Amino acid sequence: MLNAINNHMNTLQTAADSIAAKKTGSEKETNAAKEADDEKEVNAAKEADNAKKADSPVKPARRQDEYIPEKPQPTPGLYNKDGKKDGGEEVTVSTDKVDAEIKKLKEKKAKLEQEIARAQDDPEKLEKLQKQLDQVENELRVKDTDSYRRQHMQITRRKSE
């Protein structure tokens, strides 16, 4: 009886093995078919790209803006209606008066400092001179700047021929 059971088990095992072999074979066939289809699609896509490239002209590189300098335009104020050059204006700027004023203030400051050095004995005179010196220094602080010079410069305009 054991022999009969063993024979039956062997038969079942053989049947199971053959079924498994058939499944594995069919899976391999299915995978091979899929790979062939994928390869055909890839080849078709490559051929289509090559055909497009052959038909279309070569695209130029991306275009960038280019600077084109213009000819200098004449200043509108220097020309009359006929297009001939007009005399125009000659402008002169001078800060000489402001510079002279600042120079006087600096000299006054130096003079007051000398007087203060000499007047160490008299407290009333020393206090009076110190106030004057403070006023001169404040005035210098305001006037000895570029902005003050620009605001108070003398502008002379002459017609040039």
Descriptors:
65% helix, mainly alpha, single chain, 161 residues, 2 domains, 4 helices, two-stranded antiparallel sheet
Fold and architecture overview:
It is a single chain. The protein is mainly α and 161 residues long. It folds into 2 domains: 1-59; 87-159. The chain is 65% helix and 7% strand. The protein is built from 4 helices and 2 strands, in the order H-E-H-H-H-E. The protein has a two-stranded antiparallel sheet. Helix 2 (96-118) runs antiparallel to helix 3. The longest helix has 54 residues, at 2-55. The chain is elongated. The N and C termini lie far apart (140 Å). The mean pLDDT is 77.
Give the gist of this structure.
This protein has 161 residues and is mainly alpha-helical.
Query: Which structural category fits the helices and strands?
Result: mainly alpha
Query: Which H/E pattern describes the elements?
Result: HEHHHE
| Terminal residue distance | 140 Å
Rg, nearest Å? 53 Å
Q: Which term fits the overall shape? A: elongated
Mean pLDDT reading:
77
Q: Major β-sheet, in short?
A: 2 strands, antiparallel
Query: Strand sequence of the main sheet, in spatial order?
Result: 1-2
Put simply, the count of helices is: 4
Hey, roughly how much beta strand do the residues contain?
5-15%
Low confidence ranges? none
Q: Give the count of structural domains.
A: 2
Tally of DSSP β-strands: 2
Helix content: 55-70%
